[in-house]
Amino acid sequence: MPVPMDAFDDVRPAAECLDLLPGPVAAAIRDWRGPVPVRELRYVDTDPAIADTELLVEHYGRWLLEQSANCVVVAGKRGGEVTLAACLVLSTTRVDVNGVVRRHLGARKASFAPMDTAVGDSGMEYGGITPIGLPASWPVLVDAAVADAPYALIGSGSRRGKLIVPGKALAELPGATVLEGLGVA
C-alpha cells in the first residue's frame, strides 16, 4: 500500500524544498540520477516535536507505522578499522546489527554508531538521518522489504519534515545493497 499523501497537510516535490533540507540531502536531490525520476520524491512538512516514529504514528495514525522506514548508523570494527554504514529497515522491525550487518561489513564487532559520530559525519540531525546524501564512502544497507515497498516515509536529514520515496529509488542509492533479513521482528 502506498503512503496516502493526502493524509498530510503539506506535501511537495522534494526538489522544490531544497532550502528546507540539510546541505548533503539538498545536494543529493539536486544532483539526483537514476531510473526513478526526482519528481517522485516528495517532502512532507512535519513538526520536529513529533519526528520520532512513535509520536508520528500517534499523531497521523497507525497506518503510518507500516509505511515508515528508519535509518540507523552502524559502526563495524575489524582491527583498527571502523566502517560506518547506514541501515534502512521498516519501522516495524529492528536492524540485525550483530548478524546480517556484521557479516556484510566483514566486521568482528558491530554496534550502533555514537550519536556524535553519526550526526557529525553525516551532516544531518539525530532523529532525522536519511540514506539520501550520506558520505559516498558509507555502505547503504537496505532491507528487501523497504526496497519492495511502493513508497516509504523516511527522514529528511532534519527533525523537521520527512521524505516519501519509492522503495525502488532507495535500493538504487549510491553505495546501496539490498539485503534479505536486515530488519528483524
UniProtKB/TrEMBL annotation:
InterPro entries: YbaK/aa-tRNA-synt-asso_dom_sf (IPR036754), YbaK/aa-tRNA-synth-assoc-dom (IPR007214)
Top-level taxon of origin: Bacteria
Domain YbaK/aminoacyl-tRNA synthetase-associated stretches: 48-172
Protein name: YbaK/aminoacyl-tRNA synthetase-associated domain-containing protein
